[in-house]
Amino acid sequence: MTASVAAAPPRPPATGRTVLRLHRAALIVWGLVAVAAALALLWAYGPGAESAETAWRRNCPVGDDCMWDTTLNGYYRTVMLARWTIVYLPYAVAAWAGAVVGRELESGTARLAWTQGVTPTRWLAAKLTVPAALLTAGTTVLVLLHRMVYSANEFPLDWAWYDDNTFTANGTLALALPLLALAVGTLAGLLLRRALPALAVGLAVTVLVEYAADTVTPRLWPWQTALNGLRSGPGTPQNVLWGDQGALTATGERIPIPDCGDSMKCFTDHGVTGYYLDYHPASDFWPLQLIGTGIVLAVAAAAVGTAFWLLRRGTRAAA
């Protein structure tokens, strides 16, 4: 009596390892860039900061004109290059994702993978999760190092917390933007199925969404308001993100500051009794960060959901 042994179903290929193998060139480039930026920030936090601070005290005494030397210029450029790595990473990711997905659909590589035990859904999931994990891990390290350098900086180099690049590189927004770029680029590749158009569209949409989030975010958190009398002039709080500014009338109405020069009579004729300035102080950094991050992640989630829906719809129609 012989026992029949059922043949084990073939094991599906490990899509995660496949993605890493197919895109090892991009992985190597990202690894080298991340390591270089991390080393630059570590240098700026340690020995670079010591020499730059010494040069600052020597060349920029209080009350005198500041003369930057090669030490200060080198320190500033090193930190800025590392910061630009964080800030401009999403644009490279959007272009890469659009080109890769568009090329695989254009050349038929994706359909070949679907006939070898990898479902379209699993293929897309691997295309998203593997790069997302690597990007998040590397960017997290860079953001933490950047925050160390920014917090330990004891000499002014015009790195205000509200500056666009500084604001992005110091918080969760820097982690969300590459995920947005990955999702948007992938969706562009699925829609257009051609490498170059998908690259261009993914990059353009990423830029537009980032600009929209940057524009809308300050308006979604309550402004604080500084009020000043007519004779004291408009208020100028320090280290704040400025919003709307203008003149106040006796009824509390906000109007543009009239062009009156120093004429008090002119201001009185316009009914001006004082000035106002809406602003966000440094304590609003994290609320603004989380609002901007939420906007970006919501768009990224919508792009991912649309990509899976589009892929399932397309593969069902082809079947």
What can you see in these coordinates?
The protein is an alpha+beta fold. The chain folds into two domains: 229 residues; 61 residues. Helices cover 65% and strands 8% of the residues. It contains eleven helices and four strands; from the N terminus they run αααααααααβββαβα. A four-stranded antiparallel β-sheet has the order 1-4-2-3. It is flat, with a radius of gyration of 27 Å. The N terminus is likely disordered.
Quick recap of the structure?
The protein has 319 residues and is of the alpha+beta class.
Fraction of residues in H or I helices = 55-70%
What form results from the Cα inertia axes?
A: flat
Helix/sheet category: alpha+beta
The secondary-structure element order is HHHHHHHHHEEEHEH
Q: What would you report as the Rg, rounded to the nearest angstrom?
A: 27 Å
Q: How many domains, as an integer?
A: 2
Strand order of the largest sheet: 1-4-2-3
If helices are DSSP runs of H or I spanning 4 or more residues, what is the number of helices?
11
Secondary structure tally: strands: 4
Report mean pLDDT, rounded to a whole number. 85
Report the span from N to C terminus. 44 Å
The biggest beta sheet, please? 4 strands, antiparallel
| Fraction in beta strands | 5-15%
Low-confidence stretches: 1-12
Describe the SSE topology.
Blueprint: H1 15-22, H2 24-45, H3 47-59, H4 70-107, H5 109-114, H6 120-152, H7 164-169, H8 173-192, H9 195-216, E1 224-229, E2 241-249, E3 254-255, H10 264-269, E4 272-280, H11 285-318
Helix pairs in contact: 1-6, 2-4, 2-6, 4-6, 4-8, 4-9, 6-8, 8-9, 8-11, 9-11
